[in-house]
């Protein structure tokens, strides 16, 4: 076409190509942002996604989340000795090792490291090691009482 004098088509082809490249970069940035958000969900929600979140994810995203979850679990088991190290336990560094908590619902007996068992009944308050009750706080069984 350039030899026959249709130079306006070359400009249009180049413009269209630049538009396609821009759209490709935008889609890749969008998908990367979604993966970062899915990765953050593992740290915030734990290893099980809420149904409301999972409903809005594609099958490939759910598969990526499961692979990331397994990879993180393998790494956590490999560090920290026999039991492994739960990196998701303390998202923010703790100010103290023990915290005061209130039980929001009946849970039953709860054993801490020294072998002491504590009965967690609704509205009871306890002074417990932070790392032992962090998961129960996330599950809504306990509530951290701020002094």
């Amino acid at each position: 076409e350039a030899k026959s004098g249709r130079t306006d088509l070359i400009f249009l082809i180049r413009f269209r190509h630049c538009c396609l490249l821009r759209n490709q970069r935008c889609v890749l940035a969008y998908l990367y942002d979604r993966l970062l958000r899915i990765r953050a969900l593992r740290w915030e929600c734990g290893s099980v996604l809420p149904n409301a979140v999972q409903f809005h994810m594609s099958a490939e995203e759910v598969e990526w989340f499961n692979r990331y979850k397994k990879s993180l679990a393998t790494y956590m088991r490999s560090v920290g000795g026999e039991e492994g190290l739960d990196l998701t336990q303390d998202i923010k560094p703790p100010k103290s090792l023990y915290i005061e908590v209130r039980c929001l619902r009946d849970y039953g007996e709860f054993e801490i490291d020294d072998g002491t068992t504590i009965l967690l009944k609704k509205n009871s308050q306890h002074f417990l090691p932070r790392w032992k009750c962090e998961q129960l706080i996330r599950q809504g069984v306990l509530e951290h009482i701020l002094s």
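Residues 98-144 form a domain with the Ribosomal Protein L9; domain 1 fold (CATH 3.40.5). Residues 7-45 form the longest helix (39 residues).
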